[in-house]
């Protein structure tokens, strides 16, 4: 295991080392200590490496991750796992706003709460939040899944496309063109898979409600003008 102490080593050296790993190499385990809220920790990973960050981080941690497994043993600032392509990002604490924004794949697990705009413009990422989420989450979500074990704030799923939203708690309000939908067997099966991947125990898929797009805003229709 390679250990980087960010008190002694510049952040740039950590990210350079992560980017320099050639396919098939065995030295793929990294530990980061004393992150002290540093920004852009472990960004742009494109190999199946494992990174454990021992503390909280600032904005854009694990951005553009493509195949790595990154665990933050603390909380994360804005934009964690933004534009993730594949792999897994786990936040043991809370996440600030727009976690998982524009993510195209992979799994983001937030063990605490997530702030506003969680999953904004998600494009295939799966996000599981053990706590609650803030307002405007999944805004313009195109595909993927957002699973919330707690509550959701105002305007959930505003202008939603085809992302699927599952909330166990209460939803303060739904955004434009987002409605509650029937929970069919295939949704229960997928939800069970995501809960297992996110290490959620003792909670059944049947405890959730599903929300999705009413599909009235895809193209302009004068009859729906008041919803725009």
Automatic annotation (TrEMBL):
Glutamate synthase alpha subunit C-terminal domain residues: 48-183
Ranges annotated as spanning the membrane: none
Record GO terms (molecular function): oxidoreductase activity
Domain of life, per lineage: Bacteria
Pfam families: GXGXG
PANTHER family according to UniProt: TUNGSTEN FORMYLMETHANOFURAN DEHYDROGENASE, SUBUNIT C (FWDC), TUNGSTEN-CONTAINING FORMYLMETHANOFURAN DEHYDROGENASE 2 SUBUNIT C
Protein name: Protein GlxC
């Amino acid at each position: 295991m390679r250990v980087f102490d960010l008190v002694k080593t510049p952040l740039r050296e950590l990210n350079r080392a992560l980017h320099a790993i050639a396919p098939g190499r065995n030295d793929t385990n990294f530990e980061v200590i004393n992150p002290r809220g540093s920004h852009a920790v472990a960004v742009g990973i494109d190999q199946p490496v494992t990174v454990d960050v021992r503390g909280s981080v600032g904005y854009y941690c694990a951005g553009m991750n493509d195949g790595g497994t990154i665990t933050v043993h603390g909380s994360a600032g804005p934009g964690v796992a933004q534009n993730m392509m594949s792999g897994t990002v786990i936040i043991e604490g809370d996440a600030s706003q727009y976690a998982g924004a524009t993510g195209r794949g992979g799994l983001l697990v937030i063990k605490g709460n997530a702030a506003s705009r969680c999953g904004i413009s998600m494009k295939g990422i799966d996000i599981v939040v053990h706590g609650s989420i803030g307002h405007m989450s999944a805004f313009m979500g195109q595909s993927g899944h957002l699973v919330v074990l707690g509550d959701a704030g105002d305007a959930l799923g505003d202008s939603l496309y085809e992302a699927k939203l599952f909330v166990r708690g209460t939803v303060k309000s739904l955004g434009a063109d987002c409605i509650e939908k029937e929970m069919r067997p295939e949704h229960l099966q997928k939800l069970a898979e995501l809960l297992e991947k996110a290490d959620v125990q003792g909670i059944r898929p049947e405890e959730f409600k599903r929300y999705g797009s009413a599909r009235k805003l895809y193209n302009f229709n004068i009859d729906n003008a008041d919803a725009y």
